[in-house]
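This entry is passed on directly below:
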Amino acid sequence: MKIQTFLLIIFISIMPYICQADITIEDYKRAEQFLPQNLDKLVFNMSIIPNWINNGPSFWYLHRQTQDKKVFLKVDPINNIVTPLFDHEKLANALLNEMNKTSHNSNSFTSSNLPFDSISISKTGKEIEFNIGSDLWQYDLKTNTCKILPPKPPVEEGISPDEKWTVLTHNYNLFLRSTKTKEEFQLTTDGIQNYDYATPVLGGQQMVDQGTENVKQPADVIWSPDSKRFITYRIDQRKSGKMHIIQSVPPDGGRPRAYSFTYPLPGEIDIPSADLFIFEVESRKMIKIDAPPLSLRYYGNPWDYTFFPDPNTFFYYQYSRGYSSVQLRKVDTNNGAAPIIMEEKSPTYIDATTFTIQIFKDCSEMIWYSERNNWNHLYRYDANTGKFKNPITQGPWVVREIVSIDEKAKIIYFTASGKEPNRNLYFRHLYRVNLDGSNLKLLTPENAEHFVQFSPDNRYFIDNYSTVEQPPVTLLRNSKDGKIIRTLEKADIHLLLETGWKPPEPFCAKARDGKTDIYGVIYRPVNFDPSKKYPIIDKIYTGPHNFFAPKSFWAYRSEAHSFAQLGFIVIEIDGMGTSKRSREFHNMSYKNLGDGGIDDHIAGFTQLSQKYPYIDLERVGIYGHSAGGYDTVHAMLTHPDFYKVGISSAGNHDHRMDKAWWTELWMGYPVEKHYIDQSNITNAYKLKGKLMLIHGDIDENVNMSCTIQLVDALMKANKDFELLIVPNYGHGLNKSSYFIRKRWDFFVKNLLQTDPPKEYHIKSMDKK
C-alpha cells in the first residue's frame, strides 16, 4: 500500500473527530442564552394559576401577552364568558392620580402593564387590593378610586381559629395567651433544651440564615376547628447525633462560624422521637396520646395528619424503621386513646413518597393507596373500623394522585398513567370513578401529559396538557364527562423559536433485559451537524422516589440545553428502579442504589448509537447532583471503560452518611454489608476517568463531609481528580455562575479535548 493511500485512510477514519471545531466565545454565549432562567423570559402563558372567587366556580388569572404586557381575566364557567376582571384603563388612571397626589413613584406604568401581578377581591366583590412594594392599595370598582390602606397587622403564629388564643413557647415550655387581655398561662414546666415542646427539629440552613444556633421559631400546633383544644408534640433529641456546618466566609467576614444541628443517620438508634399531646384550653389540661413515640428521620415536625371537622377525632399514621409497615391511628381527643385501625406491611418497603390516606370529612370513608398487587391503586375502607370495603381501581397501570373528591356524590377524580394503550407509560390522564369502583371514565383523552386543577365545587377543572415537543394548551372542561368548554390559553413560544431552540427528542428503548421499555429524551445543539461525531453526556439522577426524564414541554427549562450548545449530545433516561411504574420495576433499586439503572442507560445509548451514527460511544461523560452526584461517581467506578468524564455535585457518596428517611426507605434497616459495598468511598480505588467533585460548604441536606470523605479515599488511592468547594452555598448550586461555568469548562476540556474560553463571564447571572 502506498504511503499516501495509507495516510488518506487514516485521515478519513479520524475525520469525524478533527471536524469538531474548537470551542468559541459564541458557543459559550449560546450556552448562556439557553440557561433555564434566560429561556423563561421567552415563553408566555405556559400555564395559568386559577384564583377561585368566593369559593365558587368563577376564577381570575393573569394572562401575559408579552413580558411587559398583561391583563387580568375573569372566567365564568357557567355562562362560558371571559372578560377583563376590571377596567384596566380606569384603574391605571386612578392609581396614577393618587400616586401623583401622594408623591409616590409611578414607574411609568400603563394600563397594559400594571405594577402588580396579584390581587385579592373583597367578599362583597366591590373592591380589590394589591401590593406595590411595601404599600397595600385598594381600588373601589364602583367609584374608580384608589387609596393606600394602613398596613395589616401580621397574623400571629399559633393563633386559634376564633382568634382568641395564641400558643407561645418560652424556655422550652408552652404558654397560652389571650389575644384580648394578653394574659399568659403556663401549660408545661418540664421542657428542657433538646427535649422541648412544639419546636421542630432544626436544620443547619435556618441557623446560617439567622446567624445563630438559637433560632427563633413560633409554636408548632394544630388547633381543633372549635378552638377548644390543640395538638402538639414534644421531641426528644438529647442523645441524637449531630451534623456540623462551618461557614468559612461569614457575611461580615472574620472568624468562621460553626453550627451544629441534629441529623439522623440510617441505622442509628437514638434518632429524635416525638410524643403527641392534646391541650384543652378551658381546663388547661394536658393529655398524652396513648401510643409509642414517632421517630423523626429528618428535620421538621412529626405531623402526618390533622384535625377533621369533628373536634373529637384526630388521625395520624407512622412508619416503622425501614418503612416495611405503616399504621394508621385514630385518636379520641377526649382521653388520648389511639388504637391502630389499619396497618399495611411489605416484604420490602411502603413507598412513603407515594403512599397517602384520604379520609372523608365525616370520617365515614377512607381511601388507602397501596402497591400490594404490583401497581399503585386505591382501596376503600371504613374509616371508623378499618374494615375493607372494596378496591376502587385495579389493573396493570398506576394511580398517581387523587385530585379531588366529591364526598356527597361519592366520586373520586384521580390521575393515572399507563392505562391508555400505545402511549408513553408516564403520561398522566385524569379519570373519575365511583367510590364502589364502578363507572371508571377517562376525562382527558389527548395523548399528552396532563396537569389538572379543580374548581372548589368539583363541577369544572382546568386541564393543562403538553408533550416534550408540543407546547401546552390550557382548557376549561366539565368534570362530568371531560367535555371542553373553552380553550383558555395556548402557550406562546415564538421568541423561544427565534433563538434556534428545538425541543429534545423523546425516545423509547429497551432496558438491559432486552424487553422492558425505558423512556428518555435527547438534546442536540442548535447548530447540530449529523455528519459530525458528537460526544454524549448522561444527565443522571436515579432517585427511586420519582422519574426524571421530562414528559412535558417544561423540558424547555432543562439545563441540558445549555450543555448541548457546547457541542454535546445530552441524554436523559429513566432506567429500572425509578418510580411511577410497577412495583416490580421499582424494586430493582431496593437495597441496591448502587445499581442506579446504569446498565439500562448503557443499553439505551447503545441502541441510539445504532440509529444515530453521530453518537460517539468512545467519548461519554456523565453528570448529576445530590443522588445524581452519587450516581455519577458510582457509574465511573463500576463502568470505568464506558464513562470517561464525570462531574458530581453535592453527592451523597456513602449512604451511611446520608439522611435516615431517604436512605432507610430505599436501602433498608438496619445498616448491613450492602451499604458498605455500594459506597463510593469503598470503591474509590477503581477510578480511571476524569472526575470533578463539587460541594457547597453550607449544605444542610447532604453535608460537605460526604464529598470530603470521598476526597480522602481518592487521595489514599493516589487518584487524580478536581475539587471545587462553593462558599456560602447550600444544596442548590445553580445560582452560582462560577459553578455553571466550571462544569462547562470541564466537559469542554476533557470530552471535546479543547481549551475553553478563559474565565468566561456569565453576565446574565450577575446580581442586580
